[in-house]
Amino acid sequence: MSGKRGLIMGVANNRSIAWGIAKAAHAHGAELAFTYQGDALKKRVEPLAAELGAEVIGHCDVTDGATIDAVFAEVEKRWGKLDFLVHAIAFSDKDELTGRYVDTSQENFSKSLLISCYSLTAVAQRAEKLMTDGGSLLTLTYYGAEKWMPHYNVMGVAKAALEASVRYLAADLGPQGIRVNAISAGPIKTLAASGIGDFRYILKWNEYNSPLRRTVTIEEVGETAAYLLSDMSRGVTGEIHHVDAGYHVVG
Ligand code: 0WD
Which of 111, 136, 184, 231 is the most exposed place for a label (fewest CB within 10 A)? Predict the structure, then answer.
């Protein structure tokens, strides 16, 4: 990946999937820039970025289009163009990631879909303009988009819409050589995952029932991401690639 420059969105700490992806892309020679959401995460992201000799572009809250514009303006100023982008962003009110989906509020439905789904389209609109030599967009999804999963609720609906977005964006941006793919990661203990009811049980269930009889790591997701972000996967777009120890074939 040497000579490639990529923007990483969604690092909260060193357990984040986006961090696993950043480490792998860096190991394969890519040059990186990070965004962070709010000052609390700035303090976490800055030292991580420094570890990889990467730039920190600035604050980006995907609910605020002005902050997205500012980030892409800064990328353009520093790099002039962009080769890849990692979107590892999701949110739902924790109180609605337990119990029944039918009880989802309109407010949390809108917010969850905006942050977890529309934001990919919002960043694709800006990235398209900078991916003048083609590029690769990558997002993160979960099996709860395909099947009912306990407690995943509105996030399952948001991920289903996200996966459909991957296909529509792939078709729209394909003519410019911009590829759009997702990794459907198995459960991993991160900050976001800790908001999901009974998450420890889900981890154990996957460990006992997946073909590989274990869960996956952020490093494993990172290696697959490096393939999808690099020219090794130049014939691949619109794909939802499972990195879940094979759980999707049995679940
Ligand atoms: O088991 C898991 N951990 C899986 C996660 C399995 C399959 C998929 N995923 C997905 C998540 O749904 C998400 O899309 O992977 C992506 C990354 O999630 P993660 O690495 O599990 O979680 P985390 O380290 O918490 O990063 C998600 C980050 C946020 O962190 P917090 O925990 O502070 O909400 O998404 C970012 C934020 O940094 N984020 C936002 N960024 C910009 N604007 C916003 C926002 N409004 N909201 C959340």
Answer: 231
CA separation for the pair 15, 226 (Å, rounded): 18
Q: Where are the domains of the chain?
A: 5-249
Which of 36, 142, 143, 247 is the catalytic position? 142
Sign of the alpha-carbon torsion through 112, 125, 165, 237: negative
Residue 207 CB less than 6 A away from ligand 1: no
Sign of the C-alpha dihedral, residues 117, 145, 177, 218? Answer: positive
Q: Give the residue, by CA position, lying nearest to ligand 1 atom 24.
A: 16
Question: What would the pLDDT profile of 114-124 be if each residue is shown by its tens digit?
Answer: 999 999 999 99
| Number of the ligand 1 atom closest to the C-alpha atom of 185 | 7
ipTM: 0.98
Q: Which pLDDT tens digit goes with each residue over 1-38?
A: 999 999 999 999 999 999 999 999 999 999 999 999 99
Catalytic option among 36, 143, 152, 247 = 152
Instruction: Please choose from 14, 36, 37 the residue to mutate so as to test ligand 1's pocket, defined by most ligand atoms within 8 A of CB.
Output: 37
